[in-house]
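Handoff note, outgoing to incoming analyst
You'll be picking up this chain. Sequence as last confirmed:
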Amino acid sequence: MKTHSLPLPGRVLLALSLLGLAAACASSSRSEGESPYAGDRPVVVQIQNRNFFDLLVFADSRAGQRRLGYVTGKGEEIFRIDPAFAVDELRIRVREMERGRECSQHYPGAPGQVIRIVVTETFARSQICF
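Most recent structure output, in case you need it:
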């Protein structure tokens, strides 16, 4: 019975390739649920929309303006902001898409900070409007 084997240079190359692949997989220090930001935790914005209207959510800082996304009527969303964007101060703006009304509030931009915003059935009475 004849067996097939790689010549010595081929076996060495295969072994080195497998070692390199194993080292690359092992050197990944970030697990699946961890923040992708360089060692800093993101600023987390949790929006609970008790209103029937859909909301558009923005974040403003010295670094610029970003649209974070949508929150559907009677829905909830969580947005994550790179702490490098939220330097010193962060303004969160919430706009009713159907009516165009908008409210905003300022928050300190600290890495790992969790901002919780509840938009009530009456938009103008929501905590972000004061």
